[in-house]
Design a protein that fits this description.
- This protein is globular.
- By secondary structure, the protein is mainly β.
- A seven-stranded parallel beta sheet has the order 4-3-5-8-11-14-17, covered by helices on one side. Strands 6-9-12-15-18 form a five-stranded parallel beta sheet, with no helix packed on it.
- It has helices spanning about 30, 60-70, 175-185, and strands spanning about 1-10, 15-20, 35-40, 55, 75-80, 80-85, 90, 95-100, 110, 115-120, 130-135, 140, 145-150, 155-160, 165-170, 170-175, 195-200, 200-205.
């Protein structure tokens, strides 16, 4: 992919500069092969999971995220099923990583308890993590005490793809004042978020 920037000076003369980068797209089943993929189901039925994947029977979405995340991990929740939260599901491991879905049917539903989020990205003590994707999740809040996606510290190279978050206080919340607070109170290194994308997402707030 090539990016070209054109500049016109005060007398109308034009100059330009370009940069070209290569993008390599790999098959996720190959890149996250074997036990790097963890598949979750509430019913213990795992027909059709990627070859060699770990399988875990649970309905607790937040515990699954907080327990099994890690560098090079892909956490997949079974489509057509509903998972719950008990605490904030929070990403604090460095990527690459994916939180998504497996199987067929409707996107997995994450039913949010009061004061929890669909996902919390980073924390006060993890200002340098990057490279995560949050995709194909249907997060259902309970109104003014839930948020779809929260940013609790610096994290770069994040993609939200085909995420639905509705009946939320906010669909996604990222405040630079929180970064300033962390930096000033013993947790330096937080910088403004970079390379963050929301693609084909539906965020509905109350």
């Amino acid at each position: 992919v090539t990016l070209t920037v054109f500049h016109f000076d005060s007398d109308g003369a034009m100059s330009s500069a370009s940069i070209t980068k290569s993008i390599t797209v790999s098959d996720a089943d190959t890149y996250f092969s074997g036990t790097n993929t963890i598949c979750f189901a509430t019913d213990g039925v795992f027909t059709g999971v990627p070859s060699g994947a770990q399988t875990v029977t649970t309905g607790d979405y937040s515990t699954a995220v907080n327990t099994y995340q890690g560098t090079g991990k892909r956490l997949l929740f079974k489509k057509g099923q509903t998972f719950s939260t008990s605490v904030h599901p929070r990403i604090t491991a460095n990527g690459p990583g994916i939180i998504g879905a497996w199987g067929s049917g409707a996107r997995p539903i994450v039913s949010l308890a009061a004061n929890t989020n669909g996902i919390v990205l980073s924390s006060q003590s993890t200002p340098t993590i990057s490279d995560w994707r949050f995709m194909d999740i249907d997060a259902r809040g309970n109104g003014t005490n839930t948020d779809g996606i929260g940013f609790d510290g610096s994290i770069n190279q994040t993609l939200m793809l085909r995420v639905r978050a509705y009946n939320m206080r906010s669909g996604a919340g990222a405040s630079y004042s929180l970064l300033d607070y962390h930096n000033a109170n013993g947790y330096p290194g937080h910088t403004m978020w970079d390379q963050m994308a929301f693609v084909d997402c539906d965020m509905d707030t109350v």
